[in-house]
């Protein structure tokens, strides 16, 4: 079998891939001689790297996340043979690296020990090339430690049967400060209005767009000259080629809800071109929260929601207290199969030009959760709205509404009790052991429960964050200078922030322990003081802050919680979020226990 497989291997293909003087290599067949996972990164999917051999040479590779299933399913393993269907070639001084976007495991060729004695794919000319400024480093695949290397001129063309002006298309998920030259092909899913800013040192204007391809999303911003040049180029829904130079930096999470650690800034030489072929780029990526789950979503959280349009309000106008400017608004009512309705407000031109008819299905990306009237929603300026989208969730909602939803009566989020009873989710007391044994939160819908538990530990390193003082904002602010805290969301600078709790606590009962996440309202209850007061204590008398935590420990509460399945990278985890906490009323607790005992009376 090994001899037969060896005859199928594309001998010399790896060298040809990195040699621009040779014809492009189409779908070479190679042997996998090693594979192992990269060290895990928090909030990132698991990544794998492998070594492929063409008998003459071997090369290090990294699998794109969309190819992870070949490893997790057990198909791609040491000794097997694969056809490389789509890949990108990187040159690193003294080292060649392939990024594998797609492959095919040739199971009919079986598995074999490493064939031949392949040599590492290196050459002297690569070492002598002038390096670029950015650096990367890693451990060698065969255990040797390589010194920090400098990234070379960038990505070689993707080996595709069709050559074009943009032969090298870089996935958004690979953009980082270590990437030099790249071109992405992405859809503009959202475009902001032009905003202006003024401070002591400068003033200017900016706009931002959200960009999407099949690997991920990223936020891009243009300032001043780039704002003037590119604002009219981008249209929501359009697909564009965007080529470096662009500045890549850590994403400011207070301004975006996209799942990306980086964002890009357009520079003077940035090239943006409209793409004629748009079929290979997805329309939009959603992470929906059902209307029924809104009660357990923290106030001021940004979410996506899809629902059937039940009612359309008239256009109205409000005047901002802070700017004294008028704003147009329109209130909509959405419903979904959870049995709940919610009011959603759209603003400005979206409100004026709103044309959807009742009973349309509408998907909203980037809406802010408010606790007004229990729970309500507001479409952010960076958000977007799609009427009757061609997605599975919309088709399912349309089918449900036509079959039964049209005749149903819907509940609002006026109170936690109505939310619980209308959704059929009873306020059930559970022990920690029951919570785990019943796997609450593992289904598609969130689970609600109450537990009586004692606080045994409060995680203190990230207990609060500096928030904007503007009414209804609460976004994180950044300290520019002493006495200058900047909120990009509402475009304001404050003398100080308002600190808000975001806590992790460990609680225990007689059956086990559980980690719970708490936000500002619950944090004030547990500690008895505001986050501002706590920060003042830390800055003046640290002993006082320690006493606050000591006093909060070993106190028992009735916690109202929500269990919901989240994903950290590719790993599913249940997140337990506290909606409310109440001190023990021993009279009520005694009555509850008496009723519980009586329920076991079989006579």
SSE diagram, text form:
Blueprint: H1 2-8, H2 13-17, E1 29-37, E2 48-53, E3 57-63, H3 68-72, E4 81-92, E5 95-105, E6 119-120, H4 124-128, E7 135-136, E8 149-156, E9 183-191, E10 195-198, E11 203-213, E12 216-223, H5 224-230, E13 239-243, E14 246-250, E15 262-266, E16 271-274, E17 302-312, E18 316-319, E19 326-335, E20 341-347, H6 348-352, E21 361-370, E22 376-387, H7 392-403, H8 416-422, H9 432-437, E23 447-458, E24 464-467, E25 478-481, E26 484-487, E27 492-494, E28 498-509, E29 512-519, H10 520-527, H11 531-540, H12 542-552, E30 556-568, E31 571-583, H13 586-599
Parallel strand pairs: 3-5, 3-6, 12-15, 20-22
Antiparallel strand pairs: 1-2, 1-4, 2-3, 4-5, 4-8, 7-8, 9-11, 9-13, 10-11, 11-12, 13-16, 14-15, 17-19, 17-21, 18-19, 19-20, 21-22, 23-28, 23-30, 24-28, 25-26, 26-27, 28-29, 30-31
Helix pairs in contact: 11-12
Q: How many β-strand stretches?
A: 31
| Number of structural units classed as domains | 4
| Overall shape | globular
Low-pLDDT sequence parts:
123-164, 415-427
**CATH arch. level architecture of the largest domain:** Beta Barrel
Write the CATH homologous superfamily of the largest domain: Nucleic acid-binding proteins
CATH class descriptor name of the largest domain: Mainly Beta
Largest sheet data? 8 strands, mixed
Cα-to-Cα separation, first versus last residue = 74 Å
Structural class: alpha+beta
* CATH fold node name of the largest domain: OB fold (Dihydrolipoamide Acetyltransferase, E2P)
Helix content: 10-25%
Strand residue content: 35-45%
What is the average per-residue confidence, as pLDDT, rounded to a whole number? 81
Number of helices: 13
Give me the Rg, rounded: 28 Å
